[in-house]
Write a structure and sequence with these properties.
Its main location: membrane. The protein is mainly alpha-helical. The protein has 22 helices and eight strands. It has two domains: about 400 residues, no CATH class; about 130 residues, Transcription Regulator spoIIAA.
Length: about 550
């Protein structure tokens, strides 16, 4: 009897019992995604400024915890490019990359962002994801991709020094340069010509063997020793209050960006399966994954869109594929970390650049411009602020959110109000745009495509008053109210005042197609009580018949 309520909070109870056939397909899918996930996880740890082994920690238990509490069972949870660069950028200036203090602050970022997502999902407030619009995420991801590539160029090119040293007598490690550029080229060739081949893993293995055979570790930068074994429980000390407060804004942006990455992958899975997407439950899973990552001594996780797509299209059916992938990562942690010792750092940088290059789509700004110029500007401003504010790149997302909300508020305060006329096709359209005759002589017929509330009421009142001032011979005002689906106290007050104004001038108010919720509120307020100068019509056809524009 308790199973339905338990399965609401523990979605894994609804998984099918595995049999040999199911497990065979799930393990195959897990192997397919693991050969991409393991190199990326190690590389993204470096992008976040963390010890490289923490990339595997962020993949192992967090991925398992997230899938157990998520409704979408084929999300690849672990390090992602955007979350990793956010971590690295957010902590610059607060600690030394790779140090114990850096790890401590990264753990607190994971705990804070995870707690935010868990709270939003558990309270059923997934609607908050709408605060980050698609143009904001587009602008941020384009700018972040450029910053990620720029951060990886020194290692990729074997540059001995920062990127700025290219302008002042740069010195190169030619072997590192060769490792980086050849690996990047092979990744691209493999992705385009041999997509089913585990190119990343093969190139990584070949580079490690070549590096070992030539003794590259003695004269160049390699991954080095990674501790073997499972992550220990990490209970972070409480940092100084000012430091903790400085982590709140980055944690909020991490939670928002991670949620949008999760949504992009989860929607594809739900559409493919023909099921309703449970955003709240998936947010719970993401939050639990981050909390587990923090307690593993690692950095915030997210959902990788590319790896989730690989999981989905490689034939995974259930969460058992993720369980199998966790088992593969466990084997790597226990036995295979020494194999990564000789991998050149340039190859890891090539892994990051190859993954991030897929995010670079400058054409999206042109496409947005064709759809909505304001949204295109929002994306461009978000991208610009993200680059200019680096390393505090989270300000780009926050600025984009503020611009999006300001645009939304502007539209609510400036609703679309038009004077309508009868089009030859029988529809009511903008009279001035289509050059149509008035509905009837001495009549002002208008339609407002918005709710009649505190935000739009003044604009509605102003439209009527200005028309009456410009046309003193008006004897009828007809409101086609079908688009108005809600009215609040301010709307009732303005409607009542407008009725008194019209009645004082001997003008009859006609209201067509008023919705029942709006009519109920107006009747309770007594705004429809006196019908001497008021005419109500259930449909627009009735109103047009009354004005003689249609034959009975």
């Amino acid at each position: 009897m308790m199973l339905p309520s338990l399965s609401r909070w523990l979605p894994f109870l609804r998984w099918p019992r595995p049999d040999a056939g199911l497990l065979r397909g799930e393990v195959t899918a897990a192997l397919t995604v693991a050969v991409v996930m393991i190199p990326q996880s190690v590389a993204y740890a470096g992008l976040a400024g963390m010890p490289l082994v923490t990339g595997l920690y962020a993949t192992f238990l967090p991925m398992l915890a997230a899938v157990l509490f998520s409704s979408s069972t084929r999300l690849s949870v672990g390090p992602s490019a955007l979350s990793s660069v956010l971590v690295g950028a957010s902590l610059l200036g607060l600690a030394e990359p790779g140090s114990a203090q850096w790890v401590l602050l990264a753990v607190w970022l994971a705990l804070l962002a995870g707690a935010m997502q868990l709270a939003v999902g558990a309270s059923g407030s997934a609607w908050m994801l709408n605060l980050v619009s698609s143009p904001v995420l587009t602008g941020f991801s384009q700018a972040a991709a450029l910053l990620i590539i720029a951060s990886q160029l020194p290692k990729l090119l074997g540059l001995q020094g920062p990127l700025a040293s290219l302008l002042h007598g740069p010195r190169f490690d030619l072997e590192g340069l060769a490792y980086g550029l050849v690996s990047l080229a092979l990744f691209e060739v493999g992705k385009r010509l041999l997509p089913r081949l585990p190119t990343v893993l093969l190139v990584l293995a070949a580079a490690a063997v070549l590096s070992w055979a030539t003794g590259y570790a003695t004269r160049g930068s390699v991954v080095g020793s990674l501790p073997a074994g499972l992550p220990a429980l990490y209970l972070p000390a409480l940092p100084a209050w000012d430091t903790l407060r400085a982590l709140v804004a980055p944690a909020l942006v991490l939670a928002l960006v991670s949620s949008m990455e999760m949504a992009a992958s989860a929607k594809i899975e739900s559409q493919r399966d023909g099921k309703r997407w449970d955003a709240n439950q998936d947010l719970v899973g993401q939050g639990v994954g981050k909390l587990v990552s923090g307690l593993s001594g690692s950095f915030p996780t997210s959902t990788s869109f590319s790896r989730s797509a690989i999981t989905l299209y490689s034939g995974a059916k259930t969460g058992w594929a993720t369980v199998a992938a966790c088992a593969i990562v466990l084997l790597v942690l226990l036995f295979l970390t020494p194999a990564l010792y000789h991998v050149p750092s340039a190859v890891l940088s090539a892994v990051v650049v190859a993954a991030v290059m897929g995010l670079l789509k400058p054409r999206v700004f042109t496409q947005l411009w064709q759809v909505d110029r304001v949204e295109a500007v929002t994306a461009a401003v978000t991208a610009t602020i993200t680059v200019l504010a680096a390393p505090s790149i989270y300000w780009g997302v926050l600025s984009g959110v503020v611009i999006g909300l300001a645009h939304f508020l502007y539209l609510r305060l400036h609703p679309r109000i038009i004077e309508v006329g009868l089009h030859p096709d029988g529809s009511l359209r903008d009279r001035h745009l289509w050059r149509l005759a008035p509905i009837a002589p001495h009549t002002y017929a208008l339609r407002m495509d918005a709710e009649l509330d505190f935000a739009s009421a003044s604009a509605f009142e102003r439209a009527v008053v200005e028309h009456l001032a410009a046309n003193p011979d008006t004897r009828h005002v007809c409101l086609f109210a079908q688009p108005i689906n809600r009215i609040d106290a301010t709307g009732v007050e303005v409607f009542t005042a407008l009725r008194r104004l019209l009645a004082a001038r001997g003008i009859t108010l006609h209201v067509s197609g008023i919705k029942l919720p709006v009519e109920t509120v107006l009747r309770k307020a007594g705004a429809l009580a006196d019908e001497t100068m008021l005419r109500l019509y259930r449909t627009d056809v009735e109103a047009l018949l009354a004005f003689g524009r249609l034959s009975p």
